[in-house]
Amino acid sequence: MKLKNIFLPAIMALSLAGCSDEKLGPTIFPDVSDDVDPSSYSYKFDTWVNRNFRDVYNLEFKYKMEDVEADMNYNLVPATYANARDLCLLTHYLWFESYRELYEATNPEHGADFLKTYGPRILHLIGSPAYNPNTGTEILGLAEGGLKVTLYKVNEMQLTDINQMNEYYFRTMHHEFGHILHQTKSYPTDFNLLSTGRYDSGSWQSKAIGYVASQGFITPYASSENREDFAETIANYLTRSQDQMDLILWMAGKGWTTGKDDDKMNVDDAEYYAYYYVPDASKPDNRTYFLSSDEHDATNRVCLIGEKGEHFYTVEEVEAYIEKMNSTVSGGVFAVEDKDTIDGKEMILQKQNIARNWFKDTWSLDFDKLREIVQRRQQDFDIEALRAEIEAIN
After folding, report:
1. DSSP letter string over 108-172?
2. Is the CB of residue 381 less than 8 Å from the CB of residue 93?
3. Whole-angstrom Cα distance, residue 104 to residue 171?
């Protein structure tokens, strides 16, 4: 089985304390001292955290790993101070302030209220991943009872690589917040009906993104169950670039095969291909399959992979490659027949539209505008300027 970097299903309670429509008080931490030791090396950071998270959003940001907050079944290490500081700043800028900017458009004096009311109460950082050797998976994020979100693998953060940060942290944040929101106010049951009978909680890890996209799922994890599908629909739409979204939708419109005689699509480590050619015209059944997919390669980007290992990150790149193959291979190349009777592209777009309407009708939020804000902030953040906010603390 291939090792997949994933986040496991969120652990949600049926009753979401702190996530109701009731007006919250000034703080949910009345017994926690506001005093920060001025002689502490983390004085400025701790003060910034209190002012920008606890005082504004009713959230306690825990970056010093606590045993009582961590799963003792895993060997875990704390986040480094520098990485915790930077991820804290970016969490505030890319997640909390994105919602605040959107909410302020219609509620100018109450921009912070949405996440103050519905956001998690605790955000806990852990430096290492939680690795499960039994399944070959890593937990990247976990939500508990709508109250706490834990983020792992903080010590591997690469500030210059938004794709890596989305893969490890920010797509996880939006995914888990999607769970918190839909557990508070349910999404339409129509969403669950779109892929009835096609979810697979047991072997989604072994499926390639190209194949699941053709089934109407935005990622392999989305194909595990309907509520993960909904959260993945939200998180991927918000954080993936347009090139990445277009490439997934391109995959969704293709047929895929393992190239095996029995074509078992759920076997472990199976490769799925979208094109083939016939090397010997006298043997038309002897096909050579090519063009596979990868949800996140070494650069943490979704891509298609050519016959010689070439990586393609845009629709334009892959179509140029197919055209080149078609002109150089004797007899040309052929697309794998799409036999599943599912319009994967249309299915994904339908799911996005349900999420779009849910944001509008249930939360009075513009899903597309939120995506614009997130995409812009992902490109324009200045980590030095954000760090300066902490250094300016007296």
Report:
1. TT-TTHHHHHHS-SEEEE-SS-EEETTTTEEE-EEEETTTEEEE--GGG--TT-HHHHIIIIIHH
2. yes
3. 23
Share of the chain above pLDDT 90, in %: 71
CA angle, residues 178, 56, 184, in degrees to nearest 5: 25
Per-residue model confidence as pLDDT tens digits over 56-115: 999 999 998 765 455 556 678 899 999 999 999 999 999 999 999 999 998 888 889 999
Which DSSP string do the residues of 362-388 spell out, in sequence order?
HH---HHHHHHHHHHHHHH--HHHHHH
What sign does the CA torsion over 187, 185, 249, 267 have?
negative
Dump pLDDT digits (tens) for 301-313. Answer: 999 999 999 999 9
**What global pTM score does this model have?**
0.87
Domain boundaries, the chain: 4-185+377-391, 189-363
Report the C-alpha gap between 362 and 350 in whole angstroms: 18
Q: Residue 50 — φ and ψ, nearest 5°?
A: -60, -45
Amino acid at 86: D
Return the bridge partners of 151, or none.
Answer: 125, 141
Is 256:274 a contact under the CB 8 Å cutoff? yes
- Answer yes or no: are the C-beta atoms of 115 and 91 closer than 8 Å: no
> What pairs with residue 124 in β-bridges?
62, 150
State the amino acid at position 187 in one-letter form.
Answer: Y
Q: Residue 322 to residues 120, 275, 291, 294, 304: CA-CA distances in angstroms?
A: 46, 9, 9, 17, 11
- Long-range contacts of the stretch 32-40 (C-beta < 8 A, 24+): 32/60
How does residue 167 score in pLDDT terms, banded at 50, 70 and 90?
A: very high
> On the CB side of 312, how many CA atoms lie within 13 Å of its CA?
22
